[in-house]
Structures are given as structure tokens and as C-alpha cells.
């Protein structure tokens, strides 16, 4: 069991957390933006960002400058999730220290902006329209707790999904040397399908994180 969770250990044999450097591997993709003729990777990213921009723009009409920040977080999470599927590459987004840092910093910024510049709107959200007077204190308490735990749920959702997928891949890979030849094609098919699923999860979790942050931001500035 200890060896199973060693893939999430950021420390190296030199007792220095150099595995965190893998989070900066996305910088190696920056030179493709300066090519004279766009390659297929550039075209793929352009199509993806145009789609994400069109999805998020209606939610951020009152604060369009924040779209660049949301796209930056989406890109960072997506590329780290994808690169974490490669052999011997550490997945930074599988650690709460990374996901909590992103979620907490964004949540604090949105709360400060909302309570300073849009106090009445945030107070209205604590008690939805049509709430009976008897249930008003309970609704305020529930809404307050739900607002406070938002960074926690964001970070746990992202980290847990990354950890679960990597554990399944590790478990299937570890039994490969002991698998009979008659069952090996089935196991390889399962591994291939799981890797395709995890590739989709890498995109989906980045999208979900960005969408929720966008919804929370639109709530604090609407």
C-alpha cells in the first residue's frame, strides 16, 4: 500500500521536492506561439480556447478582464493533468497544496471584491427570494457555510479525481507482469480505455474548476 501511494510523493531521493518542477513543464509549450506558420498543436489550442472563451463570456459580461485569468487557470490545470498521465511525471494537481492554493486565492479575491463593492448583492444571496421568515435564519446559516467551504470543495474535487484515476492506472499496471497470456489482451484493452477516460477527465476537471470559479465570480459582481 505504501508503494502504491509513492507516486504522489513530491520528494526525490535527494530529499528535495524537485518533482514540483513538473508543474512548470507547460512553459515548454510557449515557443509554439512564436512559430511563423501555426502547427497542429497551435491550431488545437486555438480552437479549444475559442470554445472556452465563448462558454465563459456570457457569465463574465460585467468583468471581461477576468476571462484571461480564468483561461490561465484552465490552461494550467489542463496541461498539468495531461502531463501527469505521462510516465515518471509528477502530477501537481493531485496535491491539496496546489489545488487549495488556487481555490483559496481566487475565493478570497472574489469575497473581498464582493463585500467591498457589492455588499447588498452578497447579502441578498444569503436569503433567496421567497424564503419564509421562519426559515430565514437557517437559510442564512446554510448559505454562509456553503460559501465558506467553496474553496475546500473545489480543491478536494480536483485532487480526488486525479488521485483516483492514477490509482486505478497504477493498480492495473502492477498486475500486468502476473497476468496469464490468455487474459493479457483484455487487461491491455482495459488499460487503454482507462487512459482514454483519464485523458477526458483531465479536460473535464479543468473545465469544471474554471466553470465553478466563473459562476462564483459572476455571483460576487452581478
Walk me through this protein's architecture.
With 222 residues, this protein is an all-alpha fold. The protein has one domain. The protein has helices spanning 40-56, 66-83, 96-117, 119-126, 136-148, 150-174, 184-221. The chain is globular and about 70 Å long. It starts with 39 loop residues before the first helix and ends with a helix. The chain crosses the membrane at residues 20-37, 67-90, 96-118, 130-149, 155-175, 196-217. This is ATP synthase subunit a. It is a multi-pass membrane protein. Belongs to the ATPase A chain family.
Notable traits:
single chain, 222 residues, mainly alpha, 7 helices, globular, ATP synthesis, transport, hydrogen ion transport, ATP_synth_F0_asu_bact/mt, membrane
Query: How many angstroms does the end-to-end distance come to?
Result: 48 Å
Number of domains: 1
Number of helices: 7
Assign an overall shape: globular
Low-confidence residue ranges:
none
Please provide the ordered H/E string of secondary-structure elements.
HHHHHHH
Amount of beta strand: under 5%
Put the structure in a nutshell.
The protein is 64% helix and 0% strand. It is globular and about 70 Å long. The chain has seven helices and no strands.
Topology record:
Blueprint: H1 40-56, H2 66-83, H3 96-117, H4 119-126, H5 136-148, H6 150-174, H7 184-221
Helix pairs in contact: 2-7, 3-4, 3-6, 3-7, 6-7
Membrane topology: Multi-pass membrane protein
Pfam family, one: ATP-synt_A
Main location: membrane
